[in-house]
Amino acid sequence: MLLSMINPVAIALGPIKVHWYGIILGLGALAGLYLAIREGRRFKMAPEFFMDLLLIGVPSAIVAARIYYVAFQWESYRDNIWSVFKIWEGGIAIYGALIGAIVSAFLYVRAKGYSFWRIADICAPSLLVGQMIGRWGNFVNQEAYGGPVSESFLRDTLHLPGFIVDMMYIKGAYHHPTFLYESLWNLAGLLVLLVLRRRPFLRAGELFMTYFIWYSLGRFFIEGLRTDSLVFNGPAWLENFLAVLWLPMDAVFEPGEMTGGNIRISQLLALLIIVAAAILIVVRRRKGWAKERYSDPILGRGDTAAGGAEAAKEGTLAAKEPEQPKQSND
């Protein structure tokens, strides 16, 4: 019996409606900001730096995520162009969001005179926190779910609370709560990153790359369960290759139904990201581009952003000359 259906509209004031989707995304962004500010203090960085980064990164991420999604679903929007702007109804792609956030962050960080890799490392756990919380926006909207399952699987096998089970009853059937799978995977990844960043062997940029590897590994398998994947028609050899990689899951779960193609874009992209990130870590070490360690001081242009003057008095960080930053991106 369905007792816990959630209204996607949190607050309605006449024609103005505030959706849970936006509130949850906002909470995810604020939680990520909190983590970044806390870690930034270890490196004598001003909280305002990360606040400005958030103000720049979030709008860029949302716009890019929507563009990415609409580009692959154009047939659904071409006859009603105004629906492109109804982002509160869902329909954003996380990889598009990452592209927008990274590009805007790179430009901002470079303008401030910091190494992009150092700031990206600090923000890597924040990205996982934002995604972990943000997936619950999909839950409220009843989207990004997997293929059909039995009610007993949700209640008795997974032991999920009733409000989650009820919300997974969509279009006459219960479905895999893939939003929950990904949220829990991101929680585990957050713990991994928080431990890893205190290890002395970690070099600049490698925590950021580890984030991509961890997230993409989970996304590859979770995406295979979904029924709303962005797809395209690819060659048979690629379809077979991805099917072989899916085999560890095939013994337990059936893949979600695909319509309109035979290759899930997010699965393919996840695989490419894992390979690219691993190669980048190896190449940067072998080429000597990763000499800095995660624990080394972060030096930037200007004492206001880096807290250089204050740190110099404490003997923990040498202030930098304003006109000549001591380091730049690799």
TrEMBL record:
The keyword ATP-binding does not apply. Residues 296-330 are annotated as: Disordered. A 1,2-diacyl-sn-glycero-3-phospho-(1'-sn-glycerol) binds at residue 135. It comes from the Bacteria. GO terms for molecular function: phosphatidylglycerol-prolipoprotein diacylglyceryl transferase activity. Its EC number is 2.5.1.145. The keyword Transmembrane helix applies. Keywords: Cell membrane, Membrane, Transferase, Transmembrane, Transmembrane helix. Pathway: Protein modification; lipoprotein biosynthesis (diacylglyceryl transfer). Belongs to the Lgt family. This is Phosphatidylglycerol--prolipoprotein diacylglyceryl transferase. It comes from Paenibacillus thermoaerophilus. The gene is lgt.
